[in-house]
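Changelog excerpt

This revision adds worked examples to the README so contributors can see how folded entries look when concatenated. The first example is reproduced verbatim below.
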Amino acid sequence: MKIKGVTDVFFDLDHTLWDFDKNSALTFEKIFRLNNLYIPLNDFLGYYETINLSYWKLFREERIDKASLRYGRLSDTFKKLDLLVNDDIIFKLSEDYILHLPSFNYLFDGTIEILEYLKPRYNLHIITNGFKEVQQGKLFNSNINHYFNTITNSEEVGVKKPNPKVFNYAIELANTHVNNSLMIGDNYEADILGALNVGFDVIHFNYHNEKVDKDIKQISKLLDLKTYL
């Protein structure tokens, strides 16, 4: 069923258009090699991915700062693996990770096709919690930057999704109205509930098959957006 009255479509970036898990894994493989660390990648990622999500939740809630996130997620993972890695190496890895992450640019299946489909029909925008210095590189290097009229990064606002200030800032930047706006994202708390709280219509990109409110519109593939838009 098509959604009526929408003029502006806002996307999350990581885990929605940009395949964060795949690109992150390739980045760790590269920086371990650059730093002569011989750590089984699958073992590392088995702990890191869960730990990283928990640190990002703390970061969204303003309970830790950027430096603590970057250090803590690596330090905790190495502890889980019973690996003794000194702080100098952890800090170096954290810097290398941010430096090299935008050099890998796998997108979710259907990203380009759905953006090509939507661009003539709607004004497209990005709202992201990712680090400003990294997100712009991801958009340019994956060659999707030109699809978006505006890019709202939470660091510019001073708070993070789901804080209403981020969504209100994005609306003002896009020169539109919340009643004409739709948010699409994978994170139920940050993207979906955050946008709903401000008055957006929403579509949950629920590719991980999370159990959520059945009244929330959901898709498991980006091309399924054509059902609604």
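The second example, added in the same revision:
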Amino acid sequence: MILCLLENIRKTFRMGDVEIEVLKGIHLQVKKNEFLAIMGTSGSGKTTLMNIIGCLDVPSSGKYLLAGKEVSRLSDDDLSVIRNEHIGFVFQNFYLLPYATVLENVLLPSLYIDKRRDNFEQKARELLRLVGLGERVKFKPPQLSGGEQQRVAIARALINEPDLILTDEPTGQLDSRTAAEIMDLIVRMHGSGKTVIVITHDPHIASYAQRTVRIKDGIIIE
């Protein structure tokens, strides 16, 4: 089953009177429960492509189907619903609220879901145990190491049981040992049935994936 289908995706940004085409006709299929790496250097267009796959942005032209639904022309509000229900994000910079506890950070995506709060809190605690932070639910991000903060971000990405996990340079701020631990967690996420896409410039990180797509100057070259 195809989870993500992108056909002739183009993205142009305007800077003053100048238009810059960042994506130049991307064709890509991602199967359900696939582990895919999108690899490219800075400026290659990989982050712009991730933003479109993650419904954080829309293409200038082309078609994007997520789980069979055309999403490339949806409103911002509709895209927000799609993101919250179907996509989990793990970013290089963690994006945790420094004044909120670990448990509260994990629960953030669930605030927009109309279900019982106590069910989500139990699940958040289970996810934190899964990522090795079961004893740190009351800690706040500044009290954690970088690797621990990324573990919180992984738990947060899983709280709404998304179909797709998008990770953008998930080990970029971590030492090699901690990076390996985080990638092992991401492999376990994939093993639990999630579709995972990792955006990276690092061949070692890409080697964890089942398949690698290389992008250069807005075009998939391999």
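Reviewer comment on example two: The mean pLDDT is 92. The two ends are 22 Å apart (CA to CA).
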